[in-house]
Amino acid sequence: MIEGRRGFLGGIASLAGVGGGLTAPVRALAKTVTTTAGTGSNAVIVSTWDFGAPANDAAFARGRSGGSLIDMVEAGVMVPEADPNNHSVGYGGYPDRDGHVTLDAVIMDDAGGVGAVAALEDTVHAISVARAVMEHTPHTFLVGEGATRFARDRGFPRVNLLTPEAEKAWRDWLKTQNYKPVANSETGTYGAGRPGTPGGALDHDTIGMLARDASGRMAGACTTSGMAFKMRGRVGDSPQVGSGLYVERGVGGATSTGLGEEVTRTVGTARVVASMRHGMSPQAACEEAAKHIASLRGDAIKGVQVGFLAMDVRGRIGAFCLLPGFTYAVTDATGKTRVEKAPSLFKS
Ligand code: SD4
């Protein structure tokens, strides 16, 4: 099912200029990689927010040890999923307003392989359950009780995801019950040297990751606990193909973060990739998608954050957001990871 399983190491070596044995087209491809900061720099892995940096490192290591692109993106996003201090992905995520932590995730290759789960409960690694949906069912998407039962059937351990800290935040929220997602609460978790420490009480965040090899094959993953204190049953953009994540062979991929409703209205990442398919750079494509949301929604998106992150098959990257503060992690072909700030449409 998954075609993009060729070893990643060859890709790393090729793009780093190390490898002999490159085919002529691949050699040509490597030469066209740009080095403009923020838009090129032969990226091989990108992911959302500054906590994406350790996730990228894990993904790179998995590739180096022979893992496929799907193995890489899965291993990468499992890092924040397992972090109890990250209150928006996996274990330790903030619950819905009824006190249930529910997870959404999607994984996708560029050969039609897709698996997703939404409203999954009692399971740390939603991304691995999504992968199991892709590899072991005739379906692409399982939700709610069915997704959770499938996870048990596949042997994923039952874990109570509601940590005492997250429960306290929920009980505090119950006092006011004011549902007001805070923009950029995700930042400062890595760059500030405090891995996995989120910024505020109403945190939400998501990791979306894209990886590619030297031949331009790609895969992506996206996983979240969604918006803190959401309505029970609410599903955001993250697990929906074309909203939270989209990857297209020969073109590139995109992932999104922020207030998911604003992305699902516009099928944001499918739009970014379609623009790239029609010749836009990843940067221009991310900007176009964010501007489209703004023109569609006007005042309704005041104070709302949405961020798009894209990478094309050549390793050119693009990132753009509505409000300042969206950061992303980029790993180059040598394995070096840096955190960058995305330009924004609005100043505040
Ligand atoms: C959601 N997009 O569930 C996710 C949340 C998120 O940064 O990305 N927060 O709407």
TrEMBL record:
It comes from the Bacteria. The active site is at T206 (nucleophile). Signal peptide: none annotated. GO terms for cellular component: cytoplasm. CDD domains: Glycosylasparaginase. One of its GO terms (molecular function) is hydrolase activity, acting on carbon-nitrogen (but not peptide) bonds, in linear amides. The record marks D205, T206 as: Cleavage. Substrate binds at R234, V235, G236, D237, T257, G258, L259, G260. This is N(4)-(Beta-N-acetylglucosaminyl)-L-asparaginase. It comes from Sphingomonas yabuuchiae.
